[in-house]
Amino acid sequence: MIKTLENLPTGSSLALQEVIDNLPWNTQGLINAVTQQYDSGELLMVAWMNKEALLETVASKRACYWSRSRQCLWRKGETSGHTQEVKSIFLDCDGDAVLLKVDQKGAACHTGRKSCFYNQIIDDRVVVVNDKVN
Amino acid sequence: MIKTLENLPTGSSLALQEVIDNLPWNTQGLINAVTQQYDSGELLMVAWMNKEALLETVASKRACYWSRSRQCLWRKGETSGHTQEVKSIFLDCDGDAVLLKVDQKGAACHTGRKSCFYNQIIDDRVVVVNDKVN
């Protein structure tokens, strides 16, 4: 269904519930979630969402993912306090990825770093390039 | 192996080939790839890489993905000319996602839009918010 938006002009729209019901959820019922700091553009993390997590995120404006390891909803920051206030949400062209632009409190990464992407490939090495913030 | 970098200070490093050989490739031999315009921070697309695609991207500094639909290497822009010049590459904390910061020529999206994330969730609608650039 989301593909019907491909050739429509800016401002065209579809009902959210119908789009969500028809997203190409994978065999585990998940789509990719990519999370970016809304003002700096820094990429914070990549995770997964099921339908329930996406609907909760839309409704609560707090990022909620699906934890594949724990097999439960993962309300980001619920225990750490490192919540993500959702500023805007986008679906990609084929609907198997969602982008959250958020305001990250503290660290997005479990290592205490702001972003999970702290390992840079430089020539033939993988180099730690960011310090912990917490 | 990449997890050994978690608690090491900034500047610590591992050999790239060893890290790549030990990434947690999924059952299809893939990791997530997220691609961002290097200067503006605009999120362009989400795709997949196998080991060969990652090694080629590192060596050529042109983004090369794995096409799950076509089951072959996908040298971005090979037919369209909409190439992605790779400025920097990062692995996330657990090594199942790679971030490319690129300079995108033309459109990253097959619809002709700069970014694939042109469908914004606004209240109870999904709204097209970006025009085609090509």
Automatic annotation (TrEMBL), chains A, B:
<comment type="pathway">
    <text>Amino-acid biosynthesis; L-histidine biosynthesis; L-histidine from 5-phospho-alpha-D-ribose 1-diphosphate: step 3/9.</text>
</comment>
<feature type="binding site">
    <location>
        <position position="93"/>
    </location>
    <ligand>
        <name>Zn(2+)</name>
    </ligand>
</feature>
<dbReference type="InterPro" id="IPR026660">
    <property type="entry name" value="PRA-CH"/>
</dbReference>
<keyword id="KW-0368">Histidine biosynthesis</keyword>
<feature type="binding site">
    <location>
        <position position="96"/>
    </location>
    <ligand>
        <name>Mg(2+)</name>
    </ligand>
</feature>
<keyword id="KW-0378">Hydrolase</keyword>
<dbReference type="InterPro" id="IPR038019">
    <property type="entry name" value="PRib_AMP_CycHydrolase_sf"/>
</dbReference>
<comment type="function">
    <text>Catalyzes the hydrolysis of the adenine ring of phosphoribosyl-AMP.</text>
</comment>
<keyword id="KW-0479">Metal-binding</keyword>
<feature type="binding site">
    <location>
        <position position="109"/>
    </location>
    <ligand>
        <name>Zn(2+)</name>
    </ligand>
</feature>
<dbReference type="Pfam" id="PF01502">
    <property type="entry name" value="PRA-CH"/>
</dbReference>
<keyword id="KW-0862">Zinc</keyword>
<keyword id="KW-0460">Magnesium</keyword>
<feature type="binding site">
    <location>
        <position position="116"/>
    </location>
    <ligand>
        <name>Zn(2+)</name>
    </ligand>
</feature>
<feature type="binding site">
    <location>
        <position position="94"/>
    </location>
    <ligand>
        <name>Mg(2+)</name>
    </ligand>
</feature>
<protein>
    <recommendedName>
        <fullName>Phosphoribosyl-AMP cyclohydrolase</fullName>
        <ecNumber>3.5.4.19</ecNumber>
    </recommendedName>
</protein>
<keyword id="KW-0963">Cytoplasm</keyword>
<comment type="similarity">
    <text>Belongs to the PRA-CH family.</text>
</comment>
<dbReference type="InterPro" id="IPR002496">
    <property type="entry name" value="PRib_AMP_CycHydrolase_dom"/>
</dbReference>
<comment type="subunit">
    <text>Homodimer.</text>
</comment>
<keyword id="KW-0028">Amino-acid biosynthesis</keyword>
<feature type="binding site">
    <location>
        <position position="92"/>
    </location>
    <ligand>
        <name>Mg(2+)</name>
    </ligand>
</feature>
<feature type="domain" description="Phosphoribosyl-AMP cyclohydrolase">
    <location>
        <begin position="45"/>
        <end position="118"/>
    </location>
</feature>
